[in-house]
UniProtKB/TrEMBL annotation:
This is Uncharacterized protein. It comes from Amorphochlora amoebiformis. InterPro entries: Cyclic_Pdiesterase (IPR009097). SUPFAM superfamilies: LigT-like (SSF55144).
Amino acid sequence: APSDLSSQLESLREEVLRATGDDCLYFYPFSALHCTVASLLKFTSGLGKHLAKADEKEQTAYIDKWKALVDKVYSHKDFPRKPAKVTFQRPELPGTTAIILIENQGKEVFQIRDLLKQECKEPPDKYHLQINIPEITHFPNIVHSSVARFKSPPKDEKKFREAFSTAAAKWKPVTCELSEIYLTVETVPYMHMDKSSAVKKTYKLDEKSTKSD
């Protein structure tokens, strides 16, 4: 399934470029393709900016607190215990970012989000160092992957969006298996980082396990 996704995204990029001659849309590296269950600490928040400049000891201590919170969610009786089916639908370009809506018939992603929301009512160190932050977490209300964004305004926006829609109409839905989620630290914007260094903990959707790796 991943190869079907990558090949179709590449075909989409090439067709739009051929039709418009306008290289204004930057497609993310396929290795960066992901679906965000939740942003536990937004990098745009005051606390996020503070921790980005903090020393490694302080960063590690804070990450460990989030690990403990997610561990608690993972051990909850309502956490999904088997792999979920997800289907990548036709790409869309609603604004400045191209996205793919993901159909999750079993609602496992929403189930995990709800459990996280319950635990994140008072996130760890919400008022760390006297920084008053009403909302440091973010829970999307859709299941999606961002695949591209404008790096410059299109020369002819109407023509460009029409070309994108025409190319996207050829998309064939791709069904994959969601077998694990990750607690990651975003070291660069848009999650374009090496997975081996970004992933701090792995949580498997496995009925045989209630412990994370």
